[in-house]
Amino acid sequence: MTSISRIRKANIPWFFHIAVIPLSVYLFPRHELRVFLLIYAFITFLFDTEEVLKALQDPNEPPLIPHHGLPFLGHVLGMFWYGASYFARVNSITQHPIFTLQTWTARTIVVISPQLAAPIQRASKNTSFYRMILEVTKRLVDFDDPSMKIITYNLDNELGHGSGLMIESHAMLDSMLSPGPDLNKLSATQLDQFSALLNDFISPPSPSKTVNLMTWVKQTFTTANAFTVYGPLNPFALHPSLVSSFWRYEAGMAAVMADIFPYLTARKPWLARRAVNAALHEFVEKEHYKSASQLIQNRVSMNLRHGFTAKMAGRAELILLFGILGNAVPTTFWFLSNIFARPELLARIREETRQAITTSTSPSPSGTEKFLSVATLKSSCPLLVSTYRETLRSIANLASVRLVTKTHTINTPPNTSYPPYLLKAGSMIQIASGVIHSAPSVWGPDATSFMPTRFISSSTTAAYRAFGGGSVICPGRHFAQSEILGFVALCVHMFEIEGLDRGVMELPVRDDERLPFSVMKPVREPIVRMRRRSGEEGWVWRLKPGVD
Ligand code: HEM
C-alpha cells in the first residue's frame, strides 16, 4: 500500500476537515466567523496528526498508538500521571506485543512481549543504554561539561579501539562483582557488618524498638554497604547525618533533576545532594578511597586517570551509591514485609532455613554464637529464594531503556507468530518490565497475586526482568542476592516484627501512581515494633558467607 492510500484509509474524518474550510468561506461571509472556523478546522486537524504519522509509518514498524485527546503531549502526561502503570493501561486497550508512542520530541517504542525483549537486547550493537541515560546521569549528580565529554568519549565503542571511561568502567565493575574471590571478599565483609549491626540493634536489656521499617532498612543498609564498599573512612561513617541526607535526595531527586531553579523549587533534596557531594569530594581529595574495597580503589583511580577532577570523581560515586542502595533497600523492605505479614509463610521459612544454622561449641567473649550460612540458604532453601524472586517480580516495574542508534530489523523467535519489526534510529525503547511481570499469558491466571512458591517450579526466566537483561544486566545481582537473603534470614531468626498492637504487621500497599527510579515504593511506610524472639535473646548471631 502506498503512503497516499494509507493516509486516505487512516482513521481521520477527511470529509469533515476538507469540508469545513470551503464551507466556512462560502457560508460565513463575515470575517470574524470565517477566521474562527478556519482556526477550528486547523485545531481539529492537529488532533489527528498522530493518525497521519501512524499512516506514514513503515508497515514493519511497531504500530503507533495515537493519543486522541492531546497529540504529542498526551502520552507524556499519561506516563507522568499514571506512573509505572501507564504502559499497562495502554496495553490493556491495544494488546500489541510492541507499539510506538509519539511524545513531544521523540518516539518511544514500548516492548510488552518477553519474546521480543530477548532479541531486542541481543541487538546491542544497534542500541545504546548509556546514550539513553547520559542526560539523566548528568542531572543526577550534577556533572560538569568536561566530565560529560570524558564520559561520552567512545561511549559505545564506536571508535572500535575498546578504550574509554565507560567501556573500561563497565568491564571492571562486571569482573569485580561476578562470582569469584573479589565478590566473596565483598560479601563476607557485608555479612559481618549486618551481623554486628543486628546484634547491637536490640540487645538485652532493651526489650523492643518501634521503628519505621523502611527507615530502619535504609539506615542499616547504608551503614553496612558504605563500610563494605567504601571502607572505614567512608563519608557516612565520618558524617553520620549524611545517611538521612542521601535518602532525602533520593526521595526528591526527580524534582532536582527537572532542573527548574532546583535550589528554590526542590530546596531540601538539592541541599541534601550538595552535602553528600561535598563529603564524596572530601573522600577522593583526602584519598580515603585508598582504604576502601578493591572495587572502589580501581574505580576512583580509573576516573582520575581519565581526567576527572577530585570533585567530579566524588560525584561519580553518588551514581554507584544509587546502584548499590537504590533497589536493594526497598527490595529488602518488601521481602521482610511479605514474610512477616504472612504468619504461615514466616513459620515455613523459619522451619526451612533452620538447616542453615549451626551453633558454636565454644562461647566467644561476647556470648555463645549461632552461625547462619548464606551458602546453605542459596542452595537448600527453595521457599526463601522463591519468595525473594516473587517479591522482586511484584515490585520490579522499572522499564529497561535503550536508544536505537542504527535502524535495524529484529527477527522474532520462530516459535512466535510475530513478524520482524523495523526499529528506526533515534527511537527510544522501553522494555516494560512491569507489564511483563504481571502478564497472565506468562505467569498464568494468578499473575497478579503474590505466590511465594511460584519460583520453586517456574522456569519462566526470559520473562523475569528484575535485573534487566542483555549486555547491561545488573552486575550487582549476585552481591544483592547474598546480602538480601542473609539479612532477611537473620531477621527471621532473630526478631519478631509486629504491628504496634503486637499483632501481625499490616502488608504495605504498593504505590502504583509514582514512577520511582527504582523498584516500587509503598504508599505508606509502616511503623512496626521489633523485638528479639523468645528463647533467642541471649545468642550472638553471625552470617557466614556463601561462596559464589
Ligand atoms: C535487588 C537489588 C537490585 C536490583 C533490583 C537491581 C536492578 C538493576 C537494573 C534493572 C539495572 C538496569 C539494567 C537494564 O537496564 O537492563 C541495574 C543496573 C545496575 N546495577 Fe543493579 N540492581 C540491584 C542491586 C544492585 C547492587 C547491590 C549493585 C552494586 C553492588 C548494583 C549495581 C548496578 C550497576 C553498576 C548497574 C549499571 C549497569 C551498567 O552500567 O552496565 N545493583 N540494576
TrEMBL record:
CDD domains per UniProt: CYP7_CYP8-like (cd11040)
GO molecular function: heme binding; iron ion binding; monooxygenase activity; oxidoreductase activity, acting on paired donors, with incorporation or reduction of molecular oxygen
Record keywords, A-Z: Heme, Iron, Membrane, Metal-binding, Transmembrane, Transmembrane helix
Family, similarity comment: Belongs to the cytochrome P450 family.
Cofactor(s), names only, from the UniProt record: heme
SUPFAM superfamilies linked to this entry: Cytochrome P450
PANTHER family: P450, PUTATIVE (EUROFUNG)-RELATED
Pfam families tied to this protein: p450
Highest taxon of the lineage: Eukaryota
Binding site for heme: 474
Membrane-spanning residues: 12-29, 318-336
Protein name as catalogued: Cytochrome P450
